[in-house]
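Example: DNA ligase (ATP).
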Amino acid sequence: MEKLKEYRRKRDFKRTAEPAGDERGDSPSGSLFVIHKHAASHDHFDLRLEQDGVLKSWALPKGPSLEPGEKRLAVQVEDHPLEYADFEGVIPEKAYGGGTVMLWDRGRWSSTGKPGKDRFDIVFEGEKLNGAWTLTRMSGRRQQDKSGKNWLLIKRHDDGKHKGSTVSVDDDRSVVSGRSMAQIAEDRDNTWTKHGAAESPESPDPSLLKGARKQPLAKSAAIHPQLATLVREVPKGKDWLHEIKFDGYRIMARLERGEVRLITRNAKDWTHRFPELADTLSQLPVEHALIDGEVVALARDGTSSFRRLQEALSRGKTAGLVYQAFDLLHLEGYDLTQVALIERKQVLSQLLDASGVVGATGHGDKKGGKNSSVRYSDHIDTQGQAFFEQSCRLSLEGIVCKRGSSLYHPGRSKQWVKVKCANYEEFVVGGYTDPGGSRSGFGSLLMGAFEANGGFNYAGRVGTGFSARQLDELHATLRELDVEKSPFNGPVPDARSVHWVRPELVIEVEFTERTRDGRLRHPAFRGLREDREPEEIRMSRDQGKPASRSTESDKKTSQTPSSGTASNAELLGVRLTHADRVLYPEQGLTKLDLARYYDDIQDWILPHLRERPLSLVRCPEGRTKECFFQKHPRVAIPASVPRVEITEKEGSAEYVYVKTAADLVALVQAGALEIHPWGSRIGDIERPDNMVFDLDPAPEVKWQEILRVAGTLRERLEALGLQSFVRTTGGKGLHLVVPLEPKAGWDEVRDFAKAVAQRHAEQEPQRLTANMSKAKREGRIFIDYLRNGRGATAIASYGVRAREGAPVAVPVRWDELNAALRSDRYTIENLRRRLSSLREDPWQGFAEASRPITAEMKRSVEGKT
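Written out as structure tokens, the predicted fold is:
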């Protein structure tokens, strides 16, 4: 019997373009489930389970139940085609089921038993629902009619394998677009009408554009892109468009009758390196086109990462890469280079929007956007300076500013300018040194650049930022380039044991600033630039000029900061042994890198850390080797680090504390990767001046839920008269830190924090717990108040974690909390970029907000009047 017969009978496919579908009974049954939220004649949810080539469907008037044992009515409706699983938008009002449809949840389902005709024992693994339910057909009196369409959806208790859901059916956000029902109805960007599903705008007509010239697409593969000029300030004026600056490979996409060629800025054909992107681009509804854009690798938070891009190319795993399209130079026999930029971008957006296979904006707010491998690079035309500052706070590369009225001219132009959040330049490798200590591959790379007359000048060394894989792969490449004589003009400092190479390898290096003699301060390797020719790399005009701020700090390191090869170094008067020891192998970060990090951010970290007893996580050989938690100093802690004697249950014991950045460097020398301060200072040990609530989520808890709970706990504290400040932890949760006037003792503060946590958890027992028992924490957020006891600690603000990627615990403003932030967003590599962009401390007013814990607060939290 035709499974979709009833579905087709109810629909007039002349009026609606909903898919007629086809049964796929001969194919293996899939495991997809979706839940639609549907505003039709009455609001309800639709549960759809993939089975036997169709979507078995039930209407849920009240949505799925979340309380174990609770039963909800489920009315079976006609089977739907599999294509329905991707739909979100609007069904025309006069069509069957007319109204707004949201993709409320989706994922995979499995059965804990054999699915029967009248019963399904289901485990959902979705983006919102996770856990066990039973779907069973009503019988007897409960059925109420003879159709057999009435079922019950019953929530079952979840075992250890099946974690319970914490989402509410009142959640009004799509799992695909993040939009509410009202926004979907307003956008109407996907409407099933007789004109076709998701009525796409027509492909643009280039002949209507002012400046378009009828001309065939050039046969030559050599395409010279327009380049941006580096400037220090964001240009002002209404004619400027401001785009995000991406950290990837500039690629021209040439489309000709379904064939795609991807060409680098130095005319290399890299189509074979990005086969998935070429396939997606080939689906554009166009015969001839030339698109300008950049191939990038995106991190989880949406930022582009050149390191990830290099890794993807090295491993040949390029399916996850994204092509950010930002300009259109040719379309269907018309050269568009003499068309104003703003019009070229409008046509490009229209072309991509018409395709139905790529993202129209790159922000996920139009079809395909967020998850597409081809995305339109949008822009803003106002607030350029604010846009730049926000980009830096989000650890982006910077921005590119383009005149909206400008025409396209190959080569570098001041019609396009770039403003960078960090300093980085390209150099050519002229030599390398042997590795030191336990390091493999090589120690450092000797860098240079060419003068206009062809001379090759020395520009310094870089020995950090390499992963273990890169050290070995680059070393193999360098050995093939070995030569006997130095390629540099003139002498090179400390040239003993240097291996010279032909200057053919181009690298990109990030640095904090230049010294007065033009050398780079704190250089770090970013990646190979295979798209650049060595002869293009010229000496920077800033070479040899004073740095933009005081360079007194250059004198604090006794050896060449960029050498990275010496086993010993000195920073702030502290001797670092094994300074080139790699502590974080994923980035190749060394002991010297970590010490320099604390030196650079001392003005941020010391106010939160100074003169507090400390506990440490020490990993002397690096984070992947043995690590241990240490409260009391031993021989390994340099004697220069100050100590304080603190009374304990049995006698007393020493703790270390810090006063200066030199003390922090000394802790790094001892292998300290994490610094955990007490909540009190050494001058008043027994009375804490802050209180910490640690929101510690179970693995399955979504980030959005953590943000929501942080907001509700903030409101509870404000109702008590206490102001809280939020901090990412560098892990998976958040800290709410409350400044206190140091009047209450440890027991009083701990008991008060416990009462607050318990009262808050009692409001949502299915989502929150103040019980540290692992069994009680499954599927919940643990509100950890235990960090407020005497001797208990929490990670320091701006302190690095002993975790993969070297994440940092970072104070943020409350209005910075969003889905893109994540608790491990900031790392030792990108935090300085954020700090340099801040106009004020995110915790501005922290000290002034301190309040004592009063008797009235205690009565209030205990529910007493």
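The chain has a mean pLDDT of 85.
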